[in-house]
Design a protein that fits this description.
Length: about 60
C-alpha cells in the first residue's frame, strides 16, 4: 500500500453490475487497484476508457 500522494494522482471509482471498486492513477497510468481490478495496474487511461466502455462499466473521479 502506498502512503504518499502526488499532485498527478487521481482516485477513480469503477461501478460494474457485480462490484464497486477503486483504482489510483498517476500520470494517466494505474499504479494501485482493488483486488478485483488488479489486472489494470500498468494500463494507461486510453486503454481503460475503451475497456470500461466495452464492458458497460462506469468510472468517475473521486474528489479529494
Amino acid at each position: 500500500m502506498r502512503s504518499t500522494a502526488t499532485q498527478n494522482e487521481v482516485l477513480v471509482r469503477v461501478v460494474a453490475p457485480h462490484f464497486v471498486a477503486g483504482m489510483v492513477l498517476e500520470n494517466d497510468v494505474v499504479v494501485e487497484a482493488a483486488p478485483i481490478l488488479r489486472w489494470a495496474v500498468g494500463r494507461g487511461m486510453g486503454w481503460l476508457r475503451a475497456y470500461l466502455a466495452r464492458k458497460g462499466w462506469r468510472a468517475s473521479v473521486v474528489d479529494k
